[in-house]
Amino acid sequence: MTNLRSSKIAGPNCVEVSKAASIPRPNGNRKTLSFTQQFMISFTSGCMSGGLSSVVCAPMDIIKTRMQVSGTLPEPMR
């Protein structure tokens, strides 16, 4: 397994890839996730973050656009 700490882009909180793709158990051992499980976790996380960003950012973008069109924003912000 590749150790992320040895890469040039690693930050101070990086962990080994084998530890990142595993689940801790009460007895201290770690259960390694299969490729399908890793994919589903990544896919679900991506869908949730994309959905959340749409819910949060879209209304603010609509408000900003309407303010720009109506001329209620100060000139430097248009």
From TrEMBL:
What keywords is this UniProt entry annotated with? Membrane, Transmembrane, Transport
Q: What InterPro entries does this protein's entry cite?
A: MCP_dom_sf, MCP_transmembrane
The stretches annotated as Solcar repeats are 37-78
A GO CC annotation recorded here is:
membrane
Q: Signal sequence span per UniProt?
A: none
Q: Which family does it belong to?
A: Belongs to the mitochondrial carrier (TC 2.A.29) family.
* Protein name per Swiss-Prot or TrEMBL: Mitochondrial carrier protein
**Species for this entry:** Triparma retinervis
